[in-house]
User: Fold Glycine dehydrogenase from Winogradskyella flava.
Amino acid sequence: MSKLKLSCQEANHVCDKNQYKEANFWEKVKLNIHLIYCKACRKYSANNGKLSKLFKVSKVEAMDHNSKEKLKSTFEKELAKHQ
Assistant:
């Protein structure tokens, strides 16, 4: 039976892996058993699911690599002026 038990830290890690479809079958089984008796991890899992849904439906646009590098360079120049 101890092979089926997860600590809360392990359960949260498996929950994160499951969110990205990286958890294997046995990890999912262990996670579901853990979620039966752990209210805190059930809440973590639910919040993780909500967050994933929000990102899927959001219209977030990332900055392209060149813009990031330019911003970083400008920031470092300004930071150097104030040191």
